[in-house]
Write the structure tokens for this entry.
Amino acid sequence: MKSWRQAQILDVIDREPVVSQEMLRQKLRERGIDATQATISRDLRDLGLVKRAGDGAYVRPGVERSDPDGEQLRRAVSTLLRGYERVDPLLVLRTDRGQAQGLAEWIDRAQLAEVAGTIAGDDTILLVCRGAEAAASVEARFGAMVMGRDRRS
């Protein structure tokens, strides 16, 4: 139970800013995990989480949202992406050899709400999206980035 709870804590703070233990407790409760403030406090300490200077949100040590406006993702997509194909809730992205893992990392760092996860090989990335509509949205967004029309991410 402890490892599951701690994994959920990391997932919550990776997805959205959490500025208090009470807010984290509520987010965990939404996921069906009932934890006391003392338990959450111990988990935060065990996980080594720290508060970010700018907004006071909990983050992993050394991890900052280094690309808040998505400019680095836009550049990575426009530079590295060679092709893409949507298959229902999935997107298959093509890069040059040896470039897929780097681009997948930028996609993961961007924490796109539509994307549940990525799997990268040498020149291919599989994006698992949260439904066909989400995949279509990401496909359009990446298309705009490749064409140089997207200045946000």
